[in-house]
Amino acid sequence: MSFPRLQNLLTVPNLLSLSRIPLGVAFWFALGASAALVSGAFAILALAALTDVLDGYLARRLAARAVGGTGGAVEPGGGVGAWLDPICDKLFVASVLAAILVRRQPPIWVLMLIVSRELVQLPIGVVYRFLPALRSWLRYDFRASVLGKGATVAQFIAIAALILGHPWIRLFAFLSFVLGIAALVDYFRRALAIGKRRLETAKASGTAARNP
Prior knowledge:
Elements: H1 4-9, H2 12-18, H3 20-30, H4 35-67, H5 79-103, H6 108-114, H7 116-130, H8 132-135, H9 146-164, H10 169-210
C-alpha cells in the first residue's frame, strides 16, 4: 500500500527540519551552569543552524530533479517542506528562548524584540486560518525568503549573545526585530501578489467562459 502523504513528509529535507524539534528539547538540558554544558548549548545552536541551511538546499535540489523528470517526492510549489520548515524554526526558537528565560532570566523586553516576528505573525495566522473569506483572496506563501532566513540568523546571533551575557545584546535584539518585521512585511507582499494573480486568473477564466 502506498502512502504518498507520508512519503512527502519523510524526505531528507523534511527530516532535517523536524530534527530541530528534539534539538530544542536538548537545549534545555545543555543550558547549564558549567562551561562544558554551555559549549553543548552552542553546539546545538550550530547544529540547528546547519540543518536550516541544508534542508533548504536539499529541497531545492530535489525540486529541480523532480521538474527535470527524474522523479522525487517533492510536491509542486514547495509542498510539505514549504510550511514545515518555518514551523520547525519557530518551535526551536521558542524552546530555546523559554530555556534562556528560565535559566538566565534576561529582561522580558529583550526576548520580545527577538521574537517580534512570531508575536505579530501568530494572531494573523490564526485569523487567516479561521476566516475563509480572507483566504479566498489572500494566499500565504510559506516558503522562507532571503529576509526570512536573515531574520532567523539574527535570532540565532541574539540568542547566542543572551547565553553569553554579551554587552551588545540590545543591538542584536534590535537587529532581530528589524529583520523580523521586514521579513513579515515581505511575506504579506508575496501573499497579496499571489492573491492578486489568483483573482486575475479567475476573472480571465470567467470572461473566457462567457465569451466562448
